Protein backbone atom coordinates (compact mmCIF):
# COMPACT_ATOMS: atom_id res chain seq x y z
CA UNK A 1 0.00 0.00 0.00
CA UNK A 2 1.69 3.18 -1.23
CA UNK A 3 0.14 5.55 1.29
CA UNK A 4 0.89 3.35 4.31
CA UNK A 5 2.48 5.47 7.04
CA UNK A 6 5.87 4.33 8.34
CA UNK A 7 6.52 4.54 12.08
CA UNK A 8 9.69 3.86 14.06
CA UNK A 9 9.13 2.81 17.68
CA UNK A 10 12.11 2.72 20.06
CA UNK A 11 11.84 1.19 23.54
CA UNK A 12 14.11 -1.14 25.48
CA UNK A 13 11.15 -2.99 27.04
CA UNK A 14 10.50 -5.85 24.60
CA UNK A 15 6.97 -6.52 25.90
CA UNK A 16 5.88 -2.90 25.56
CA UNK A 17 7.55 -2.65 22.16
CA UNK A 18 5.62 -5.70 20.94
CA UNK A 19 2.35 -4.34 22.37
CA UNK A 20 2.80 -0.97 20.64
CA UNK A 21 3.83 -2.59 17.35
CA UNK A 22 0.73 -4.79 17.45
CA UNK A 23 -1.59 -1.92 18.39
CA UNK A 24 -0.35 0.24 15.51
CA UNK A 25 -0.05 -2.68 13.10
CA UNK A 26 -3.79 -3.25 13.46
CA UNK A 27 -4.23 0.30 12.15
CA UNK A 28 -2.31 -0.60 9.00
CA UNK A 29 0.88 1.32 9.78
CA UNK A 30 4.23 -0.10 8.70
CA UNK A 31 6.23 -0.47 11.92
CA UNK A 32 10.00 -0.59 12.41
CA UNK A 33 11.55 -1.05 15.82
CA UNK A 34 14.66 -0.21 17.78
CA UNK A 35 15.70 -1.59 21.15
CA UNK A 36 18.05 1.19 22.23
CA UNK A 37 18.90 4.80 21.47
CA UNK A 38 21.85 4.07 19.22
CA UNK A 39 19.78 1.74 17.03
CA UNK A 40 16.90 4.24 17.00
CA UNK A 41 19.16 7.05 15.81
CA UNK A 42 20.83 4.93 13.13
CA UNK A 43 17.47 3.67 11.82
CA UNK A 44 15.82 7.10 11.88
CA UNK A 45 18.68 8.61 9.88
CA UNK A 46 19.00 5.78 7.35
CA UNK A 47 15.31 5.30 6.50
CA UNK A 48 12.32 7.57 5.92
CA UNK A 49 9.55 7.64 8.54
CA UNK A 50 6.29 9.53 8.94
CA UNK A 51 6.56 9.37 12.75
CA UNK A 52 9.19 8.44 15.34
CA UNK A 53 8.17 7.29 18.84
CA UNK A 54 10.93 7.27 21.46
CA UNK A 55 11.13 6.11 25.04
CA UNK A 56 13.15 8.48 27.22
CA UNK A 57 15.19 5.96 29.19
CA UNK A 58 17.01 3.68 26.77
CA UNK A 59 20.52 2.21 26.71
CA UNK A 60 23.39 4.08 25.00
CA UNK A 61 21.50 7.28 24.09
CA UNK A 62 18.36 8.54 25.81
CA UNK A 63 15.25 9.48 23.85
CA UNK A 64 15.75 13.23 24.28
CA UNK A 65 19.22 13.09 22.71
CA UNK A 66 18.00 10.83 19.91
CA UNK A 67 15.16 13.28 19.17
CA UNK A 68 17.56 16.23 19.19
CA UNK A 69 20.03 14.53 16.85
CA UNK A 70 17.29 13.43 14.44
CA UNK A 71 15.87 16.97 14.39
CA UNK A 72 19.30 18.51 13.94
CA UNK A 73 20.48 16.19 11.18
CA UNK A 74 17.21 15.94 9.20
CA UNK A 75 16.10 19.56 9.59
CA UNK A 76 13.00 20.20 7.48
CA UNK A 77 12.79 16.51 6.59
CA UNK A 78 12.49 15.48 10.25
CA UNK A 79 9.36 13.46 10.96
CA UNK A 80 7.17 14.31 13.96
CA UNK A 81 8.49 12.77 17.18
CA UNK A 82 6.55 11.50 20.20
CA UNK A 83 8.41 10.98 23.48
CA UNK A 84 7.17 8.37 25.99
CA UNK A 85 8.23 8.66 29.61
CA UNK A 86 7.50 7.15 32.99
CA UNK A 87 8.93 10.33 34.53
CA UNK A 88 6.74 13.32 35.42
CA UNK A 89 5.82 14.64 31.97
CA UNK A 90 4.60 17.95 33.37
CA UNK A 91 8.14 18.65 34.54
CA UNK A 92 9.76 17.28 31.40
CA UNK A 93 7.47 18.70 28.72
CA UNK A 94 9.85 21.59 28.05
CA UNK A 95 12.80 19.24 27.64
CA UNK A 96 10.79 17.11 25.22
CA UNK A 97 9.79 20.11 23.12
CA UNK A 98 13.34 21.50 23.09
CA UNK A 99 14.61 18.12 21.91
CA UNK A 100 12.39 18.37 18.83
CA UNK A 101 9.44 16.26 19.99
CA UNK A 102 5.89 17.35 19.20
CA UNK A 103 4.28 15.45 22.05
CA UNK A 104 5.11 13.61 25.25
CA UNK A 105 3.06 10.72 26.63
CA UNK A 106 3.03 9.67 30.29
CA UNK A 107 3.64 5.96 30.83
CA UNK A 108 1.63 3.95 31.56
CA UNK A 109 -1.01 5.02 29.07
CA UNK A 110 -4.13 3.51 27.61
CA UNK A 111 -3.52 1.93 24.22
CA UNK A 112 -6.56 3.74 22.78
CA UNK A 113 -5.08 7.09 23.88
CA UNK A 114 -1.73 6.12 22.33
CA UNK A 115 -3.40 5.15 19.04
CA UNK A 116 -5.41 8.39 19.05
CA UNK A 117 -2.28 10.53 19.60
CA UNK A 118 -0.47 8.74 16.76
CA UNK A 119 -3.45 9.21 14.41
CA UNK A 120 -3.76 12.89 15.40
CA UNK A 121 -0.11 13.63 14.66
CA UNK A 122 -0.11 11.72 11.39
CA UNK A 123 -3.14 13.72 10.18
CA UNK A 124 -1.25 17.00 10.58
CA UNK A 125 -0.03 18.60 7.34
CA UNK A 126 3.70 18.19 8.15
CA UNK A 127 3.35 14.39 8.34
CA UNK A 128 3.92 13.46 4.72
Would you kindly provide a written description of the structure presented here, covering whatever features stand out?
By secondary structure, this protein is α/β, with parallel strands linked by helices. The protein has one domain (6-123): Response regulator (Rossmann fold), CATH 3.40.50.2300. The chain has helices at residues 14-25, 37-46, 63-74, 89-99, 111-123, and strands spanning 6-10, 30-34, 51-55, 81-85, 103-106. A five-stranded parallel sheet has the order 2-1-3-4-5, with helices on both faces. The chain is globular, with a radius of gyration of 13 Å. The two termini are 15 Å apart.
**What is the fourth-level CATH superfamily?**
Response regulator
Radius of gyration, taken over Cα atoms and rounded to an integer in Å: 13 Å
> Residue share in helices?
40-55%
Low-confidence stretches: none
DSSP summary, beta strand count: 5
The mean pLDDT is 93
Global morphology: globular
The gist of it:
With 128 residues, the chain is an alpha/beta fold.
Descriptive labels:
128 residues, Rossmann fold, five-stranded parallel β-sheet, 5 helices, 45% helix, 19% strand, globular
Tell me the layout of helices and strands.
Blueprint: E1 6-10, H1 14-25, E2 30-34, H2 37-46, E3 51-55, H3 63-74, E4 81-85, H4 89-99, E5 103-106, H5 111-123
Parallel strand pairs: 1-2, 1-3, 3-4, 4-5
Helix pairs in contact: 2-3, 3-4
Amino acid sequence: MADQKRILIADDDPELLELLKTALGYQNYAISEANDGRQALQTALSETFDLVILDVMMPYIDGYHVAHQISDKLGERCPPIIIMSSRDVQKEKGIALMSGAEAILQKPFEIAAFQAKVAEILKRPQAQ
